[in-house]
Amino acid sequence: MEKEKVIQLLDCERRNFIERHPRSRALFEKAGKSLLGGVPMNWMVKWAGGFPVFVEAAKRSYFTDVDGHRYLDLCLGDTGAMTGHAPDQSIGAIVDRVCRGTTFMLPTEEVLLLGTELQRRFGLPYWQFALTATDANRFSIRLARHITGRSKILVYNWCYHGTVDESFITLHQDGRVTPRQGNLGPPVDPAVTTKVIEFNDTEALEKALQDEDVACVLAEPVMTNIGIIHPDPGYHLILRELTRKTGTILIIDETHTICAGPGGYTALHGLEPDMFTLGKPIASGIPAAVYGCSEDIARRITELTTVEDSDTGGIGGTLAGNALSIAAMRATLENVLTTEAYEITIPLAERFVAGVEEVIKEFGRPWNVTQLGCRAEYWFRPEPARNGSEAAEAVDPELDSYMHLATLNRGILMTPFHNMALISPQTTVEDINRHTEVFREIVKNLVG
Ligand SMILES: Cc1ncc(COP(=O)(O)O)c(C=O)c1O
Q1: What is the arithmetic mean of pLDDT over 39-59?
Q2: CA 160–ligand 1 middle distance (angstroms)
Q3: Those residues with Cβ within 8 angstroms of residue 186's Cβ, 6 or more apart along the chain or in another chain
Q4: Which residues pair with 336 in a beta bridge?
Q5: Which of helix, strand or coil describes residue 244?
Q6: What are the DSSP calls for 75-87, one per residue?
Q7: How far apart are CA 130 and CA 115, in angstroms?
Q8: End-to-end alpha carbon distance in the chain
């Protein structure tokens, strides 16, 4: 019954969306003549309205589309624009670098300042650069394999670390391990390269590491790609203890959890990763990513790699470490993703959560809402999940699409494919109150 209602409401929202977005629709149809699927990137067809909104311009926490609508952006490019769009504090440095040349195959002096800032913020002594978080993860995995001489990596069920081949693996409840659904042309069965366990399962972790054939654990400190799933108290201590005991390298991927604070979850909770990766918002929307390592890992890398092979070692990217990305990262860390910015965004996320909780209670929905720093997300189960499988069981694609599209039709963009909100330093109390109002209206429609 409720399902029928959701489908009915979703239909209605879709009609409304199509009616109000004639120009986006026309552009999408025209784009189909030159772009595969009518979009620049395959996942851009997955939006709940059937075609994407085409963006005209964006500034701070708002963007406008080609049909003249203005949206509060709580998606923020799925964290790529967590700085807010086109932040004034980094534009100057970016434009200046564009005018003075962007890529040379040579370093600029500025990179020294960036290296020092990365050390200060995240606690690891040595750093390298990539263009995407995916590549930062890929390169870290390669290095981990190289210096340990081990072939496997370990990830959590339902993790996402970018398009890293080894990570597209699913653990089923009957213990079977298969390639993740939709995995296109996997180079090998990921079971060959990867062990997969549930988050928060310390017994499985111990068992998976005991053979000492795992080069690295690639972990988000809090899972963020199947809802927000917090670690159990003490989980990270056990993870660190077991990885150390078995000589397994611990890579912490902070690409999303940088929402926890200026030093990510790592600095906030005193984690001690061997390697650390981060991309997306670190350069105010300019493609850039970083990966760092401990003194010990740096020594082992240096001992086991030669300058002669450095251009064919499987770690590369002609534009990686380019001067524009470096300038953008430096300006972003110095002037945008500051302690003061988090002092604004985290209380706003708390306000978002309070508003959503109030509505969930008011209408007796069996849902919960979780928060990590300036990120919050509601999920369709009464209690927060403890692992990926529990969270995945509660996925309801029609309900997700309805909530997403109904919110969009009322002028607010949530992160698609689930319903996550991210707060930028320019988001306001009025913006959050507006979300609560919209959330109330669309939940009321659902139960009315
Ligand atoms: C935790 C995490 N790591 C890495 C990535 C990959 O980022 P990118 O697609 O920018 O390479 C993502 C993307 O969503 C992510 O969520």
Answers
A1: 94
A2: 7
A3: 165, 168, 179
A4: none
A5: helix
A6: SGGGGTTTT-BS-
A7: 14
A8: 13
User: Residue 225: CB within 6 Å of ligand 1?
Assistant: yes
Domain at 2-82+339-447: CATH architecture: Alpha-Beta Complex (3.90)
Ligand 1 closest atom vs CA 256: 1
The whole-chain average pLDDT of the chain stands at 97
Is it the case that residue 253 has pLDDT exceeding 60? Answer: yes
Pocket test for ligand 1, best of 79, 218, 280 (most atoms within 8 A of CB): 280
Contact 183, 168 (CB under 8 A): yes
Given this chain, do its domains 2-82+339-447 and 88-336 carry the same CATH topology?
A: no
Query: Does residue 418's CB lie within 6 angstroms of at least one atom of ligand 1?
Result: no
The CATH T-level fold of domain 88-336 is Aspartate Aminotransferase; domain 2 (3.40.640)
| Among candidate residues 282, 280, 258, 255, the one with its CA nearest the CA of residue 90 | 282
Give the residue, by CA position, lying nearest to ligand 1 atom 2: 161
Residue 52: its pLDDT value, please? 96
Please state which of the ranges 5-19, 164-178, 220-234, 300-314 shows the lowest mean pLDDT.
300-314
pLDDT number for residue 309:
85
279 close to ligand 1 (CB < 6 Angstrom)? yes
User: Domain limits of the chain?
Assistant: 2-82+339-447, 88-336
